[in-house]
Amino acid sequence: MPFRIQIRFRDEASEVSTSSDIDRITRELQGRIADYQDHFSRVFAQYFEDLQRNFDGPAESRFTARSLELLGHLSLRGGKRQRVAFLYEAARLVTAEPVPGLDEAALSIELLQTHLLVHDDIIDDAPTRRGGPSTYYAYREEFPQHPQTALGLALLAGDLAAFLSLQVLLDSGLPVALRHALVDVQTRAAAATFVGQMFDLERDFPQIPSEELLNSVSDYKASRSSALAPIQLGLLVAGEDPVEHAETLRRYALMFGISGQMCDDYLSLFGDERVTGKPNTADVRDGRRTYAIRAVLATATETERVRIESILGRPDCTAADIDCLRDIAQHHRVDRELRSKMHRYAELACREAAGWRDCWHDDAVTFFERVPVWGVERTL
Amino acid sequence: MPFRIQIRFRDEASEVSTSSDIDRITRELQGRIADYQDHFSRVFAQYFEDLQRNFDGPAESRFTARSLELLGHLSLRGGKRQRVAFLYEAARLVTAEPVPGLDEAALSIELLQTHLLVHDDIIDDAPTRRGGPSTYYAYREEFPQHPQTALGLALLAGDLAAFLSLQVLLDSGLPVALRHALVDVQTRAAAATFVGQMFDLERDFPQIPSEELLNSVSDYKASRSSALAPIQLGLLVAGEDPVEHAETLRRYALMFGISGQMCDDYLSLFGDERVTGKPNTADVRDGRRTYAIRAVLATATETERVRIESILGRPDCTAADIDCLRDIAQHHRVDRELRSKMHRYAELACREAAGWRDCWHDDAVTFFERVPVWGVERTL
Q1: A269, A283, B150, B290: which could form a disulfide with A288 (CB 3.0–4.6 Å)?
Q2: Domain boundaries, chain A
C-alpha cells in the first residue's frame, strides 16, 4: 500500500519522499476523518433524539414517528461521512478556530444524503443499504400485504428528509444572509443530483455511452452534492465566499468525483464482493453502463460485444457470466487502463488543491490534496 | 344556489340580505379568481419556457429536458389555482398596490403542488391527473418495457419540482431576509404535507377513525400548504409579519381546510361522477376512510357495518356496492349531516376572517370571508 502511494506521488518527490512519510500522512488522514466521524455521529444521534421530541407532527400518528425512526436508523448507520470530512476541512482552509454552524451544515448534508438514498433504493428496488434494510424494504417488511402503502411511506419519508435537510439550516440561528446562502447551495446541489440520476438512467439506454457522457453524469450525480457542496458550505460558514473560487472548486470536485465514480464502478465489477458488500453481478444484471462496463464494450471485438450485450440486463446473470466479462476485460487490459485513469483523475484533483496554498491554510490544503489518491488507493 | 347561500349567510343578514347581493358577490368572487388564473397561467407558462432554456442540466440529456416538459404539462393543466388566489388576496389584505415577489411566491406554491401531485400519483398508482396522464403514467407509456425506469423518472421529476419550488424564491432578487422567510414558510408547509400524507395512509388502517383524527389529517395534509402557507407568503411579500397573526391564520386555514376536505370526500361518494371526473367507486375500492365513509361506518348498525367493511378495499367493488353504501348513508341521514357540517366549518372560517377587518383592507377581508362558503356551495 505505501509503495503504491509513493508511485502516485512521484511528481511531488520533493515533498513526499519516504515510505515512512507516506505512512504518517495516511495515519494523519485516517485520524482526522475518524475524529470527524466520531464527532458527527454524536451530533447526528442527538439530532434524531431531539427530532422525535420536538417534531411538528400529530402526536397520535404512529406512522409519522416510525418514519423519523427509520430515517434515523438509515442515517446513523453511517457510511464513510466523506462529505462531512470535506465540510469540516473546508472551514479549516479558512480558519483553525471553531466556527458556529458547521454541525448544522453537516446535518444538512447528511440528511440530504439520507433523502437521496431512500429514494434511490425505491428507484433501484434495493433491499439493503449500509448493511441494513433499505427504508423501502423496511416498510415492505412491516406491510407485507400492502406493497403500495410501503412504497408510499418510503417515498414520503424520503421527501421529509429532503426538507428536514433545509429546515436544519433555516433553524440554525446563523445570520440570515448566511442561512440563505447555505440553503441556496443545498438546493442547487439537490437539483443537480436529481438531474444526474435521470441522466444515469438514460446512460443505460444507448449502445455505448461516451466517457465524456459518463463524466457529465458523475458531475451532476455525485460531484456537486458529495464534493462541491460540502466545500462550499464549509467555506461559507467560515466566512469565505466560495463564488470567488468557483472555477477551481468546480474542477476539484469534478476530478475527485470522476475518480471516485470510476473506482466504485471498477470495484463493482473487479473487486472482492466480500469487501464491497455488493455482488459483482449487480451492475451487469441491471444493465448499468458504468465506466467499467463501458470500457469493456468500447474495446471488445464485435463477437465479444455481442456476447457482453447478451449478458447485460439479464436478471439471471451468473458468476460465470461475470468471469467471462472479466476475461474479455483483462484480455484488453481494461482493468489496468481503468485503474490508471482513476489515478490520473485523482492526481488532477490533487494538483488543483495544491494551487490553494496561496490563499488558504496549509494544513487543510494538504488534506484536500491527499484525499483523492488516498481514496482510490485504500479501496483498491 | 343563491337561496342556499342566503341561508348560509343568515347570521349576517345586515350585510347580505337579498339574492341579487349574493349574485353580485358570487360574480365578483368568480371574476377575481378568474383574473388571478389568467395572470398566473401566463406567468407559469413563461416560467417553463425560461426553464427549458436556462436550466442547469447537461445539454445532451434528453431525459432531463423531458422531465421539465412533463412537469410543465402537469403544472400548466392547472387546477383551480385556489392557492394562488389566496396568495394574491393575502397581499391585498395589506395593500392594494402591486408588490414585487408575488409572482415568484405563486410559482413556488404551484411548483410545490406539482411536486406533491407527481409523488401522490406514484403513491396512489393513479393513471390520470387534471384531465391528462399522471407524470408516472406518462413515463410508463414511454417505457412500456421498463416500469422501474418509469417509476424512477417520475420520482426524480417530483423531487426536482420540490427544489425548483424553493429555487424560484432563492432566485427572486427580493431582500435576503424576505427570501429567507418565504423559503422557511414553504419548507415547513412541505414537511407538514408529507406528515399529513403519511397520517392519511395510517387513517385507512384502524377500524373507524375519529372525526378529530380526520381533522388532524386534513390540517397537516391540506390546510397548511393549501391555505395557511399561501396567506403567510402573501402577507410576507406585502411587508406584514404573519407571525403576529399566527393564531387566527391557523384557525382560518384549519376550518377552511376541513370544510374543503369534507366537501371533496362527500362528492367522491355522493357526487355526480360526470361532474367530479372521478368514479364514485374510487375511495371505497381503495379502502379510504374519508369523512364520508367514516360517518357511514360510525352511524351504521352492526349488520350494516359488516356489510360496508366487506366492500371497503375490494378492487372489484361495483356501482351496486356504492348504491348499497349510499342507501345505508341516506337511511341514517349521513349525507345531510355531512353537508351541514361542512357548512358549519366554512362558516367558522368566514367568522374568523370577519375579525380581520380591524387590521386589514376590507375588500380582501371580504374575499376570505366569502370564499369558504362559496367553495362549498359551488360544488354541491
Answers
A1: A283
A2: 24-178
- Mean pLDDT across the stretch B216-244? 97
- Which residues in B lie closer than 8 A to residue A176 (C-beta atoms)? 176-177, 180
Q: Report yes or no: A130 and A73 within 8 Å, Cβ to Cβ.
A: no
- Distance (Å) from the alpha carbon of A126 to chain B's nearest alpha carbon: 11
Fold of B241-380: Farnesyl Diphosphate Synthase (1.10.600)
Residues in chain A closer than 8 A to B195 (CB atoms): 56-58, 61, 64, 160
Using DSSP's 3-state secondary structure scheme, residue B129 falls into strand
Percent of chain A with pLDDT over 90: 81
Nearest CA in chain B to A66: B198
pLDDT value of residue A18: 62
A24-178: CATH topology: Farnesyl Diphosphate Synthase (1.10.600)
* Chain A residues with CB-CB distance to B219 below 8 A: 58
The pLDDT of residue A371 is: 93
Average pLDDT over residues B318-346: 94
In chain A, which residues have their Cβ closer than 8 Å to the Cβ of B166? Answer: 166, 183, 187
Q: Count other C-beta atoms under 10 Å from residue A142's C-beta.
A: 13
Question: How many CA within 13 A on the CB side of residue A177?
Answer: 6
pLDDT at A16 over 70: no
Using CB atoms within 10 A of its CB, is residue A275 exposed (0-12), middle (13-18) or buried (19+)? exposed
- Mean pLDDT along residues B213-221: 96
CA distance to partner chain A, nearest, from residue B130 (Å): 21
Question: What is the average pLDDT across A206-234?
Answer: 94
In chain B, which residue's Cα lies nearest the Cα of A152?
Answer: B123
Does the domain at residues B24-182 carry the CATH identifier 3.30.70.260?
no
CATH topology identical between B24-182 and B241-380:
yes
Q: How many CB atoms lie within 10 A of CB B124?
A: 16
**Residues A57, B195: C-beta atoms closer than 8 Å:** yes
More confident residue, B24 or B201: B201
